[in-house]
Amino acid sequence: MSEFVTLSKSSPQFESYLLGTFAKDKRALPVQTLNVNSASETVTFKIVPVSSLEFPPRIVRIMKTVKFRSFLFILVPLFLILTKNIADQTIRDPISCLIATIGVIFAFISVNLRNDYTDHVRGVDRVLERSGSRAIQNGWTTASHIKNLSTTFLILSLMCAVPVMMAYNEVAYVVVVGAIIGLWAQFQKRISFKYKIGGEISLFLMFGPLLTVGYQLAMGAPFDKESLWIGVVWGWAVLFVVHLRNFINILPSSQAGFRNTVNCLGFDRSRRLIALWWAIFLCINLFYHLVYAGKYWGIYVSIALVFLSFTFISKLKSLSSPVGGDLRQVFKYGFTLFLFTIGLWVFECLWYLLLAR
Question: Using CA atoms, how far apart are residues 229 and 84, in angstroms rounded to an integer?
Answer without folding.
Answer: 12
